[in-house]
Design goal:
This protein is an alpha/beta fold. The chain folds into two domains: 2-129, no CATH class; 134-375, Purple Acid Phosphatase, chain A, domain 2 (4-Layer Sandwich). The two termini are 47 Å apart. The protein is elongated. Strands 1-12-2-3-4-5 form a six-stranded mixed sheet. A six-stranded mixed sheet has the order 6-7-8-9-11-10, with no helix packed on it. The protein has helices at residues 2-30, 36-52, 59-95, 105-129, 166-179, 202-210, 231-240, 279-283, 325-332, and strands at 133-140, 151-156, 184-188, 218-221, 243-245, 249-253, 257-261, 292-295, 311-314, 338-340, 348-351, 368-375.
Length: 376
């Protein structure tokens, strides 16, 4: 573990040095008297904000650090991509003798300018896109089970309350949920961002949750960011928000559907002496003739569910959140987004990209979404 973390920090540090040098070359053309020491100190503080956010500092200072680090995570990704792309273009130009050696100042200037303009453009779009909420609809047919009328389930996940802009987005999310007039609302994990104290106004967030309008209640399961030392407070928060938490428990809703909520398989900081149960034991009390719907935050182990399960609701992947992250999630998970059913005897699975963001409050190649599932 220490070796793995060390490698990540070395790669991250090297990438920041690379970006800092490229930016300095450009700034030095515009401002020839730029103080390299001051520039280096500012860049180091910004780059280290991601690490400083875990240090024991005053809550007000920590919020500022977390705000800087959240935006820097996204900016860093695209600065690195466009730095590398610009250098590849210059290298190719040098190899075919279009660009002379040594590289003239005019090429250095336009290399830096293009890198900055592209980064500013993509980051600006990503911030705008992360403040939009998309409505996604799926029609799911349940075979061999009694279902007298259609059931409308609204699924949200990955709210990450406490993250940048999360509380502002919560109000829009609740309005979107209510507009769908759901029978059941399911929140499939990562309701919190791992630190309950990061929520600036918990009472307001509770009041917002209480505004959810549904015929048969709001149910939740826990995600990997919903554990740690604040676990008991998180559970209390959900109870006061009129959200029923299902911790490897099931609930029969109006005798029409059995809803199961799974504890996450790898919570950060643990669930305070609670562990994920075996699915067979939970299903042993299930009625065989009504649909079984499971909330399981992480879709990594969907193969554990057999034909007795009808539908799995997951989140976690964020659909990569920032391109090219989608390429990674697509490689990691059998289903990283959307609705899929492998075979006639397999359960269907819906993986949502989430209603909020983790880390940078940005999205490229994915959307914040509310999912409406109609069971037939």
């Amino acid at each position: 573990m220490v070796f793995f973390v060390t490698i990540i920090l070395l790669v991250y540090g090297g990438a920041n040095v690379y970006i800092a040098r490229r930016l300095y070359q450009w700034f030095n053309l515009l401002f020839q008297n730029i103080n390299s020491t001051i520039y280096a100190c500012i860049f180091i503080v910004i780059a280290l904000s991601i690490v400083l956010g875990f240090s024991p500092v005053h809550s007000g200072v920590k919020k500022v650090i977390n705000w800087i680090s959240a935006y820097w995570m996204g900016i860093f990704v695209y600065l690195l991509i466009f730095c590398l792309a610009a250098d590849c273009v210059v290298l190719l130009g040098s190899l075919v003798k279009i660009i002379p050696k040594p590289i003239p100042p005019s090429v250095i200037f336009f290399r830096g300018l293009s890198m900055l303009l592209l980064t500013i453009g993509v980051v600006s779009y990503s911030i705008y896109n992360a403040n939009q909420i998309k409505l996604v609809n799926y029609d799911v047919s349940i075979k061999d089970k009694k279902l007298s009328d259609d059931i409308k389930i609204v699924l949200i996940s990955d709210l990450h309350l406490g993250a940048v802009n999360s509380e502002n987005n919560l109000e829009k999310i609740v309005r979107g949920v209510n507009s769908l007039e759901p029978d059941i609302v399911c929140i499939a994990g990562d309701i919190f961002n791992g630190d309950l104290s990061a929520i600036s106004n918990p009472s307001k967030a509770m009041r917002t949750f209480l505004e959810i309008e549904t015929k048969n209640g709001v149910y939740a399961s826990l995600g990997n960011h919903d554990g740690g030392s604040a676990y008991d407070d998180m559970v209390r928060f959900l109870s006061q928000s009129n959200i029923k938490l299902l911790n490897d428990e099931c609930e029969i809703i109006e005798g029409r559907v059995l809803l199961i909520g799974r504890m996450d398989r790898s919570p950060i900081g643990g669930f305070v002496n609670a562990m994920r149960a075996d699915i067979a034991g939970i299903l042993s009390v299930a009625e065989p003739d009504i649909p079984i719907v499971v909330m399981d935050h992480n879709p990594a182990r969907i193969n554990q569910y057999g034909p007795e399960t009808d539908l799995i609701l997951s989140g976690h992947t964020h659909r990569g959140q920032l391109f090219p992250g989608r390429l990674i999630t697509h490689a990691m998970f059998d289903v990283d987004y959307g609705y899929r059913q492998k075979g006639a005897n397999s359960p269907g699975i819906v993986v949502t990209s989430g209603a909020g963001t983790w880390g940078p409050p940005m999205r490229v190649g994915s959307s914040n979404e509310i999912v409406c599932i109609t069971l037939h």
